[in-house]
Amino acid sequence: MRAKGFTLIEILMVVSVVAIVFGYSLAVMSSVQKVARSQEATSGLLHVLSVTNENAMQNRSGDSWGVYLDYNETSRDVNEYIIFLGGSYATRDVAYDRTYTVDSAAQITDASLSGASPSDGNDHEVVFSALSGETPQYGNITIESLGLSKTLNISRYGWAVWE
User: Fold this and answer.
1) What b/e sequence results for 9-34 when a residue is b if at least 16 CB atoms lie within 10 Å of its CB, and e otherwise?
2) Cβ pair 126, 49 in contact under 8 A
3) Best CA proximity match to 113, nearest among 134, 94, 137
């Protein structure tokens, strides 16, 4: 008479199948998290630019609004984005500064925001004119995060879109 239960081989087969499925799901989850972190870094900049453009077009506080991209020109690591009130970051009214932190994996690999003038790829600010929302600092910003790269195009009319 045969004993009831599972054999050692049957148990090992089930454990092996479960381990393979678990390993595959971890790889997929890692990839999903990588994409999510990358999208967070890029969508954060688009949000900051949109809010700043809206502030300028609505003439909040009666002046131009801008975004300062605080990043290291050598390592390209982004520290933060700063929304400011005024015609430039240097002459801004610091009482209106709003700082947005950025994922530590984000890097600005190119920031060419000089409009029709030549750029060295290390531009740091975009200023939107009051009421019109237009900017003389139009161009492209390329952000890389965890190996994924996206380029944001800012038109002279102040519209920002991903390429």
Assistant:
1) eeeeeeeeeeeeeeeeeeeeeeeeee
2) yes
3) 137
Tell how many helices (H) and how many strands (E) occur in the chain: 1, 8
Q: Identify which of 71, 78, 55, 22 has the alpha carbon closest to the alpha carbon of residue 133.
A: 55
Q: How does residue 39 score in pLDDT terms, banded at 50, 70 and 90? A: confident
Residue 139, Cα to own-chain centre: how many angstroms? 16
How do residues 2-22 score in pLDDT, each as one tens digit?
678 888 898 999 999 999 999
- What would the CATH number be for the domain defined by 41-162? 3.55.40.10
Burial class (CB in 10 A: 0-12, 13-18, 19+), 49: buried
| Percent of the chain whose pLDDT exceeds 90 | 66
| pLDDT tens sequence across 98-141 | 999 988 888 999 999 988 787 777 889 999 999 999 999 999 99
Distances 118 to 93, 122, 123, 138, 157 between C-alpha atoms, Å: 29, 11, 11, 12, 19
